């Protein structure tokens, strides 16, 4: 078959005892959009990293246009016509678009000639694929959607015929995502082959021609998208039937647990990230904060939990003030009943190099039951960890395993178990299911609702609009640091999307 | 995916890899010896024999090792909190003041076992004080500890020249050193310890502070892995953002860690001052503070690794001196080159052979898994 752009035969890859890819076979037809879907830790990223030369497969071969190629490093991948758009952009923030696109493909030591050539080439690419972007704009001043476009241009500039996109919509607004899909469609029409890695079923259904499902390192199925359904794919991914909607009853809000008034937070550069935000959070309700990443949600959570100092405003926890503008101490706040599941569990919520049981006490290490004087009571810590591992079904059930060796979902369960277990009054959660597999998402969502039903006040920040809509009893939308609207849980995606893009909000504020 | 290298079994991680690194270092060192026209095997013989061949040689090796255990532990403690204390040299130097003061005060009236505890406290206090300032400057003013500790090494050096030429020098003496201590200011040798193994200590200055070094190693283990403070230090060392999230005070931990590190470095001064010379001389540290960095690197900041690493460097010091004595064309500088190679391979390039070894182990564990599966079926 000569219309196969890329073929993988028997790809096998292990990292020590972890068998990340088991005998993977995959054929991607030329000029199609091929989705690869699977839970986190299913081996998608490993497979693509092999394809792009970051890792070497232990065995198996890769064929591009029917010819076997050895991809030893990303340069070899580029030479074979494979380009990659990473989940986290690989751009030099203070370079211009043009400089970034040329980076690594400068042609000569003297830049002038290269720049002129690149400019011409860039113009051509822009015309051909409708990918307009100002070549002289500095990357850090561009919105995320445009930065991603630069990544795509970078790959095209290197004459990629096969484009791999790793979780491309994670950072985009719904409108930006739609635009990206149009661009991908355009690329397909021009004969390029696109491989789209995602865990979002909806995206797969919306734009792919074919979809391959990975589960636990194996390629379990390939389907023609038009002939499959979301339900079938979800089942293939998880290996069993999944409840995609969370069942929950009416909220019974009680007294106000957390009162935020006029909170303003600036970042290190003095840019206002949270701008005069006020809201109340009551016992027994979940308030969701929707918004595109980077609109102040992170800073809001950090200020409330005492990690980041606010410029002005006040926060009352159970009627008593938190010194958000002064020396709020996270460990004191924990004692006062405020638990915090941070957005970034890898760098903030967990110490990946610690054993599981060591992370299970992070922030609660002052607790008397873990201590014998100044010494740690190691037995008590491990016993406690074992108990919670059982309760939260953390796998593998080994409190002495390094945290880095747990999957994303299980890592998140470690954090949740730690923060929920003491029955706090207020639970603030950032991105509860980012990088978490479908099976664990269901578990986490059910837990959050259980906590609400037990009378906990939950503040939820997520960039997953579906998650916000599924869990929240009230939805606040943040844009450019401000709360631009409040909606009920029945608000449509379009309505929230407009608010998130700052369109509706401005009108509302003007009225 | 999140782990770049597979996890190796403990004995390979802490035993096999350092051994391979060491073997390669010696191989390259052998080539260097060959290059100057000498027989590497002969050099190796002199190195090993000169370090372990006789009770006296072993005594010297362990004497140097004692020094390196202290400075290695000092560097390791700071490493665990993510701090790179390059100031061990200066802290050890200043720690000598504490030892000298205790000895000069009480050596004529008290026995060594009264003076020794005071000297320990004195050395720890002065060492800690010398590390406090860089720690405080980092915590409160953001001055990087690597820079400030280096500068403090120079300040320590000048300060000690001043003290030893003007203040602590006995009147009428021409050399920059304190007076020689009376018996109360000198530590007993551990001749009985070597005698158990039928060895004669000879003139080697192997003394009681070796036992103190072992106790210190155990205490460091306790501190790092079994106390709340150690837990906080490690949290900060691995992830400052997680420490902030957990409500740990970065500045408090920085200052305390640096003081513990400085105290350990300061205690090194006991060994040469009370254990060997019986007086404080100019420049008695002789680079031990820097060797401590290599020892901590090689010992992977774990006391159980630091002790053998310190013995290894003790061997290089002692055996190296023997080589240059026996083989005149190999100068003292050649020995420094060999030591440098050990540091290079054991410290800086410690990950060089890891991927290959990890792959070997992965292959083996997979084979074992297959065997287990077929047996299970």
Tell me what the structure shows.
The complex is a heterodimer of chains A (511) and B (377). Chain A is α/β, with parallel strands linked by helices and 511 residues long. In chain A, 34% of the residues lie in helices and 26% in strands. Chain A has two domains: 4-238, P-loop containing nucleotide triphosphate hydrolases (Rossmann fold); 256-510, 3-Layer(aba) Sandwich (Rossmann fold), CATH 3.40.50.300. Chain A has a six-stranded mixed β-sheet, with helices on both faces. In chain A, strands 16-19-20-13-21-22 form a six-stranded mixed β-sheet, with helices on both faces. A four-stranded antiparallel β-sheet of chain A has the order 2-1-4-5, covered by helices on one side. Chain B is an all-alpha fold. Chain B has a domain at 65-306. Helix content of chain B is 74%, strand content 0%. Chain B is globular, with a radius of gyration of 22 Å. Chain A binds chain B through residues 14-20, 41, 45-46, 305-307, 329-334, 340, 342, 344, 347-354, 358, 361-363, 365-366, 371, 374-376, 378, 402, 404-405, and chain B through 1-3, 5-8, 222, 226-232, 234-235, 238-239, 241-242, 244-248, 358, 361-362, 365-366, 369.
What is shown here, in short?
The complex is a heterodimer of chains A (511) and B (377). By secondary structure, chain A is of the alpha/beta class. Helices cover 34% and strands 26% of the residues of chain A.
Cα shape of chain B? globular
Largest sheet of chain A: 6 strands, mixed
Kindly report how far apart the N and C termini of chain B lie. Answer: 30 Å
Query: Rg of chain B from C-alpha positions?
Result: 22 Å
Strand content of chain B: under 5%
Derived from helix and strand composition plus strand pairing, the structural class of chain B reads: mainly alpha
Topology pattern of chain B, helix = H, strand = E: HHHHHHHHHHHHHHHH
Quickly count the helices of chain A: 18
């Amino acid at each position: 078959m000569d219309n196969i752009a890329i073929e993988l035969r028997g790809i096998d890859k292990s990292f020590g005892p972890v068998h990340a890819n088991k005998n993977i076979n995959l054929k991607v037809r030329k000029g199609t959009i091929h989705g690869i879907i699977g839970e986190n830790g299913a081996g998608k990223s490993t497979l693509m990293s092999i394809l792009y030369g970051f890792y070497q497969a232990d065995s198996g071969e890769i064929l591009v246009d029917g010819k076997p190629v050895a991809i030893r490093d990303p340069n070899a991948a580029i030479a074979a016509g494979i380009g990659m758009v990473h989940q986290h952009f690989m751009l030099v923030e203070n370079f211009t678009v043009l400089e970034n696109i040329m980076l690594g493909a400068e042609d000569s030591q003297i830049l002038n000639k290269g720049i002129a050539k690149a400019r011409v080439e860039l113009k051509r690419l822009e015309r051909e694929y409708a990918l307009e972007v100002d070549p002289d704009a500095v990357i850090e001043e561009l919105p995320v959607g445009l930065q991603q476009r630069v990544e795509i241009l970078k790959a095209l500039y290197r004459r990629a015929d096969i484009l791999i996109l790793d979780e491309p919509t994670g950072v985009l607004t719904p409108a930006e995502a739609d635009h990206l899909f149009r661009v991908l469609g355009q690329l397909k029409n021009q004969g390029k082959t696109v491989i789209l890695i995602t865990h979002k079923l909806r995206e797969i259904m919306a734009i792919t021609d074919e979809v391959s499902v990975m589960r636990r390192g194996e390629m379990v199925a390939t389907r023609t998208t038009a002939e499959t359904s979301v339900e079938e794919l979800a089942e293939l991914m998880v290996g069993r039937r999944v409840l995609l909607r969370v069942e929950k009853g009416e909220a019974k809000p009680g007294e106000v647990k957390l009162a935020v008034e006029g909170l303003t937070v600036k970042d290190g550069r003095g840019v206002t990230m949270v701008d005069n935000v006020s809201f109340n959070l009551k016992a027994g309700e979940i308030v969701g904060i929707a918004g595109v990443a980077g609109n102040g949600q992170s800073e809001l959570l950090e200020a409330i939990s005492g990690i980041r100092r606010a410029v002005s405003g006040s926060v009352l926890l159970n009627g008593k003030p938190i010194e958000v503008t002064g020396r709020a101490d996270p460990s004191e706040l924990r004692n006062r009943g405020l638990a915090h599941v941070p957005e970034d569990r890898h760098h903030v919520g967990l110490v990946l190099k610690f054993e599981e049981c060591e992370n299970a006490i992070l922030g609660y290490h002052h607790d008397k039951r873990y201590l014998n004087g100044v010494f740690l009571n190691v037995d008590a810590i491990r016993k406690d960890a074992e108990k919670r591992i059982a309760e939260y079904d953390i796998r593998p059930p080994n409190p002495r395993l390094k945290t880095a060796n747990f999957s994303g979902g299980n890592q998140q369960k470690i954090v949740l178990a730690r923060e929920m277990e003491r029955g706090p009054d207020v639970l603030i959660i950032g991105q509860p299911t980012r990088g978490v597999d479908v099976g664990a998402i269901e578990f986490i969502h059910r837990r959050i609702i259980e906590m609400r039903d037990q009378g906990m006040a939950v503040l939820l920040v997520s960039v997953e609009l579906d998650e916000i809509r599924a869990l929240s009893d009230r939805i606040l939308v943040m844009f450019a640091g401000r709360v631009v609207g409040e909606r009920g849980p029945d608000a449509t995606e379009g309505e929230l999307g407009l608010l998130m893009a700052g369109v509706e909000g401005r009108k509302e504020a003007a009225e | 995916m999140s782990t770049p290298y597979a996890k190796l079994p403990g004995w390979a991680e802490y035993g096999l890899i350092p051994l391979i690194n060491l073997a390669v270092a010696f191989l390259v060192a052998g080539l260097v010896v060959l290059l100057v026209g000498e027989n590497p095997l002969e050099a190796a013989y002199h190195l090993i024999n000169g370090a372990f061949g006789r009770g006296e040689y072993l005594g010297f090796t362990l004497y140097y090792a004692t020094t390196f255990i202290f400075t290695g532990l000092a560097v390791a403690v700071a490493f665990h909190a993510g701090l790179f204390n390059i100031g061990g040299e200066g802290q050890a130097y200043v720690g000598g003041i504490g030892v000298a003061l205790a000895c000069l005060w009480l050596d004529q009236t008290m026995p060594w076992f009264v003076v020794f505890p005071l000297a320990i406290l004195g050395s720890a206090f002065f060492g800690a004080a010398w590390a406090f300032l860089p720690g405080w400057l980092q915590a409160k003013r953001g001055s990087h500890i690597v820079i400030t500790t280096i500068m403090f090494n120079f300040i320590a050096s000048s300060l000690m020249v001043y003290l030893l030429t003007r203040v602590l020098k006995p009147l009428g003496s021409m050399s920059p050193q304190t007076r020689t201590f009376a018996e109360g200011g000198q530590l007993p040798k551990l001749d009985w310890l070597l005698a158990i193994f039928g060895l004669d200590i000879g003139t080697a200055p192997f003394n009681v502070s070796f036992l103190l070094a072992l106790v210190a190693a155990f205490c460091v283990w306790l501190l790092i892995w079994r106390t709340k403070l150690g837990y906080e230090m490690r949290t900060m060392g691995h992830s400052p953002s997680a420490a902030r999230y957990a409500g740990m005070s970065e500045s408090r931990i920085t200052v305390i860690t640096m003081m513990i590190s400085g105290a350990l470095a300061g205690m090194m001064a006991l060994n040469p001052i009370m254990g060997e010379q019986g007086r404080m001389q100019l420049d008695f540290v002789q680079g031990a503070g820097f060797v401590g960095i290599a020892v901590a690197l090689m010992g992977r900041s774990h006391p159980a690794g630091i002790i053998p690493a310190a013995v290894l460097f003790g061997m290089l010091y002692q055996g190296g001196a023997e080589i240059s004595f026996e083989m005149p064309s190999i100068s003292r500088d050649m020995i420094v080159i060999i030591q440098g190679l050990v540091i290079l391979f054991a410290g800086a390039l410690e990950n060089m052979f890891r991927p290959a070894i990890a792959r070997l182990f992965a292959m083996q564990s997979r084979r074992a898994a297959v065997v287990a599966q077929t047996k299970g079926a």
